Amino acid sequence: MTIKAVVFDAYGTLYDVQSVAAITEEAFPGYGDLITQIWRIKQLEYSWLRSLMGRYEDFSAITRESLNYTLKILGLKFDATAFERIMDKYVHLDLYPEARQALAALKGRKLAILSNGSSDMLNALVKNTGLDSVLDATISIDSKRIFKPSPQAYTLIEERLGVKPTEVLFVSSNPWDAIGAKSFGLNVAWIERVTPEAMALLCQKSDVVAPLTMFKALRMQMDEMDLQPDHRIGALTDLPKLAAV
Amino acid sequence: MTIKAVVFDAYGTLYDVQSVAAITEEAFPGYGDLITQIWRIKQLEYSWLRSLMGRYEDFSAITRESLNYTLKILGLKFDATAFERIMDKYVHLDLYPEARQALAALKGRKLAILSNGSSDMLNALVKNTGLDSVLDATISIDSKRIFKPSPQAYTLIEERLGVKPTEVLFVSSNPWDAIGAKSFGLNVAWIERVTPEAMALLCQKSDVVAPLTMFKALRMQMDEMDLQPDHRIGALTDLPKLAAV
Fold first, then answer.
1. A75 touches chain B (CB under 8 A)
2. Interior CA angle at B211 toward A224 and A199, to 5°?
3. Where do the domains of chain A lie?
4. Which of A10, A15, A134, B198 can pair with A115 through a Cys bridge, CB separation 3.0 to 4.6 Å?
């Protein structure tokens, strides 16, 4: 089987969502990491709940709603300026250190992003980080008005790239996204950023397990939904050997 | 407007899901509360993700998958007997202390449960706790093969009870369920088990915020999805005055 296209999730896969923590920490000293973790959990929840209720709002709106929720639950006071500064980071996220090198090594195949992000957010982010010259397409699920892991979201790959699901390698670090893509019929590589051994250490019993640890861990262990990704890789730079198969 | 039926969510609303903690604590000393919190988060996530992916499995299967996930992430070893003992608690959950009195005070109206639980789980639970003599119907979303907050789940109320959405008071302590019901067009009472003041205290800054506190808090603050329940009540016993309107 030939892989004709490698398609990446954006948030958490090519881009480090946790890189927001520097800005949130600056705005709310001592809370930086906690904000980004709660924010991410609620952002994902809202995307799924709105999809299920049939009340789509784009990812930019959801990202605002979930940030609002997060600051409220932590009892943090804020003004519009602080809020907008944090939001702005979402279009200036850091690439994972190995992302550029991995993308360069995949040259020759179609390369794209398929993300829950809104078109505006994604295009700005891709441009700000210079990936626009490397990617053949930046695909937002916006036009379908439903978020991943709905199968409708994944149909956009064939619609936009003209490549059949069996010839696509989809890459995500998000377990639910890897499973959604697999359920749809794509070849899937899941980036396991934490090994099971490290996970066990992270979560081992102590008098107080730090909430950050638990929140992070909850997003990093493969889910138990009777589907598994085809490949588990440790970093984006493991991709070229998979795509060569 | 006359309220002809009062319909309750089951888990977290009439029944205390956290009452599982006594069993999990017995099986895994020191981990009881943490297990129930992570379990609940993943159970909800799996219900939404499977609904979105179009891969419905009933709530019993999802409850097993999410318990598996939870024990795995905490690195806890277990055998089938321990697992089944914990699962069994789900059909023997504790009623909230005020539940019986509240239901009795609502006599004269149709009373029902609409729950994500599978028919088997719900019927056993209702029977084991003696609510079968009080309720006119115990409705599982099973037949729709999609979970709340999908609107399809809420259509079951009119289908089974013959009462129009505008004449139904739906009661849930789960923010996402209250919003889903409101989005569908029911009258909604949300049980706010923790006041905003208590929440602020729970989550106030400390060197280490306990993970339990954060996990609990994340399920108890009303969500920010531009919809609000019609009523906020502190306990089930506040219902009779609402239903009288």
1. yes
2. 45
3. 5-17+93-243, 18-91
4. A10
Q: Which residue of A has its CA nearest to B66?
A: A224
Residue corresponding to tokens 């998958």: B65
Treating both helix axes as pointing N-terminal to C-terminal, what angle do A211-218 and B211-218 enclose, rounded to 10 degrees?
60
ipTM attached to this prediction:
0.93
Q: Tens of pLDDT along A5-52?
A: 999 999 999 999 888 999 999 999 988 888 998 899 999 999 999 999
B9 among known catalytic residues:
yes
Please spell the DSSP secondary structure of B64-131, one letter per residue. HHHHHHHHHHTT----HHHHHHHHHHTTSPEEPTTHHHHHHHTTTSEEEEEESS-HHHHHHHHHHTTG
- Select A5-17+93-243's CATH number: 3.10.50.40, 3.10.180.10, 2.60.40.1930, 3.40.50.1000: 3.40.50.1000
Q: How far apart are CA B154 and CA B43, in angstroms?
A: 20
Give which of B197, B225, B228 to mutate to test A binding, by max A Cβ within 10 Å.
B225
pLDDT at position B181 over 80: yes
3-state DSSP call for residue A62?
Answer: helix
Give the global pTM.
0.94
Q: Specify the pLDDT at position A205.
A: 53
Three-class SS state of A171? strand
Q: What's the CATH superfamily of B18-91?
A: Putative phosphatase; domain 2 (1.10.150.240)
Q: Is the pLDDT of residue A118 over 80?
A: yes
Residue of chain B with shortest Cα separation from A179: B53
| Residue among B66, B50, B218 nearest A215 (CA) | B218
